TrEMBL record:
Gene3D superfamilies: NAD(P)-binding Rossmann-like Domain. Belongs to the short-chain dehydrogenases/reductases (SDR) family. It holds the Pfam family adh_short_C2. InterPro entries: NAD(P)-bd_dom_sf, SDR, SDR_fam. This is 3-oxoacyl-ACP reductase. It comes from Oceanibaculum pacificum. It comes from the Bacteria.
Length: 260
């Protein structure tokens, strides 16, 4: 399918690895000019070069922390008028809510709720003026089915989802859509980190925990970043203008509900 976004400009946050990288790779293959951002300079530059070799896409790599005003200013200076915005940031650590301080909560809310809102605020009016915009928020399947040990993530990402639900109905008449991609278990560092907590408690190795989780999933495996990126590219396509305010769960069928 020709997605109709060749030549568009996209900001893809936290895209040096994992799901953000999958989205950047997929958008690059569709001829999108990319502005990718991550904190680690070395991994970021390696990903930028990988994308260039993979698709020939134009890639600007910007090292910085998107959860800070300085990081946001840096990427918006490089690309002040994106057509596509993919919001993404690492999730807060797992644990027991009794151990989390107010500072912990504020950091989680800043990274996973307020930062995406700030980026939307900075870019959405330009999209409206140009009559094209695609905003994709990478959140979590925990928005639909909360994960007990990820309480900070559950709360912050649900807050973003609630905010977007109202805004997405206001922008769609201008061909600006806002949707969520809700990953379940994917082959990423994040999954290994959460598995390490379970491994410590159970006395099993991390690999044993991961193998068990793969077998428990209806698909019998974890997802790949390529699958995730392809879904993101479709939501960013010219064909997705009638899809807004939605939350696509990608979890291999783990969410056992009829309204997911």
């Amino acid at each position: 399918m020709e997605t109709g976004i060749r030549g568009r400009k996209a900001i893809v946050c936290a895209s040096s690895k994992g799901l953000g990288k999958g989205c950047a790779l997929a958008l690059g293959r569709e001829g999108v000019e990319l502005f990718i951002l991550a904190r680690g300079e070395e991994a970021l530059q390696a990903t930028a070069e990988e994308i260039r070799k993979d698709s020939g896409a134009t890639v600007t790599a910007i090292a910085g922390d998107i959860t800070t005003p300085e990081g946001r200013a840096k990427v918006l200076a490089a690309c002040p008028n994106p057509d596509i915005l993919v919001n993404n940031a690492g999730g807060p650590p797992p644990g027991d809510f009794r151990d989390w301080s107010l500072d912990d909560w504020n950091a989680a809310l800043n990274a996973n709720m307020l930062t995406p809102i700030e980026l939307i605020k900075a870019t959405v009016d330009g999209m409206i003026e140009r009559k094209f915009g695609r905003i994709v928020n990478i959140t979590s399947a925990s928005v639909k089915s909360p994960i007990p040990i990820l309480g900070m993530s559950n709360g912050a990402r649900a807050g973003l989802t609630g905010f977007v639900a109202g805004l997405a109905r206001q922008t769609v008449k201008h061909n600006v859509t806002i949707n969520g991609l809700l990953p379940g278990p994917f082959e990423t560092d994040r999954v290994r980190k959460t598995a390490s907590v379970a491994a410590e408690k159970s006395g099993k190795s991390i690999d044993e925990v991961l193998d068990g989780r793969r077998k428990e999933n209806p698909a019998g495996r974890f997802g790949t970043i390529e699958e995730f990126g392809a879904a993101c590219a479709f939501l960013c396509s010219a064909h997705a203008g009638f899809i807004t305010g939605q939350n696509l769960v990608m979890d291999g069928g783990a969410y056992n509900g009829t309204m997911g």
